[in-house]
Amino acid sequence: MKSAIGFGGRLYTGEKSFNIVGNAKKWYSVSAVLFMLSMGALVFQGLHLGIEFKGGTSYTFTSSATVEEARTAVEKTGITGEIIVQSIDGNKLRVQTGSVSTEQSNAIESTIITTFGVTADSIDAQIIGPSWGAEITKKAIYGLIAFLIVIMIFLAMTFEPKMAISAIFALFHDVFITVGIYALVGFDVTPATIIGFLTILGYSLYDTVVVFDKVRENTRSITSTSKMTFTQAANLSVNQTLVRSANTSIIALLPVASILFVGGGLLGAGTLKDIALALFIGMIVGTFSSIFIAPVLLAQLREKEPAMIALAKRVNARGSVVAPGLGVTANEIPAPTSTQNRRGPRNQPKRKGRK
Fold it and tell me: Distance (Å, rounded) from C-alpha 73 to C-alpha 119?
């Protein structure tokens, strides 16, 4: 424990530092690979929308039968289309189908009654029309857009516009990769999944705001002191919050992992599995973007400002090492003149009458 505290202290004071902001190409490459993987999953496999979004019929009943036994029984009714069977709480089964006619619905219920020995009153049948699912999808999209607009306005007023741009890009990065991996795994997108997506937006934004607050603190008077460039100050800020971000992420991931692997995997709770997978992936990606994407993008946007370019030249002229990616080369730094190289008593002009 003491070693961990000492390590965090060295990161905070700058005694120990990782060049996170300076390795922008490396982090962008990792994000590009995840983006391509997510894009491929969405294009070739697509999202498996749940019954709440595309409409259909759901039958829930108590039985100790297996998922395959229930699927085989329903398939014998001649129902076409996708049939989804889930185990709930270990003693219930849920059968979901597409839109069916009244005759087909009666045939499915009769098959469940005769095959699994349940009564008609014990079957919880729900019919969801496609128009209702389309309305839910539209509201989810409107809610996401409204959330992003409010967050951008808040960040622009609280911090600065370029911080807002970097934070929104990080949020889009988190959601897109999470949705892509969700599609790759093949889980159904349910209202619980949407709740999970919105939750990871808040989590990722919280971690990003903490890093940006430290960046603002370290760069408040950076142009007047000229001790370090904006990139160097941003890198120091990321290192100062690195241990905190790691500890917060690990603590948050432990209960989510237990819900995903124990609640969803062992107990077969479908709703828990949907929301837990979105949270598990989103928290990991959100932590990555808060540390390696948002501050790096912010530094690159700020370094293009004339004041920061001039600051980089002053810092470099004082003998400090300019962080990578500043756009300042050695040829742009004015070289000392010949008179500046001949300073000292021996180079002073002699007065008459003195040797």
Answer: 16
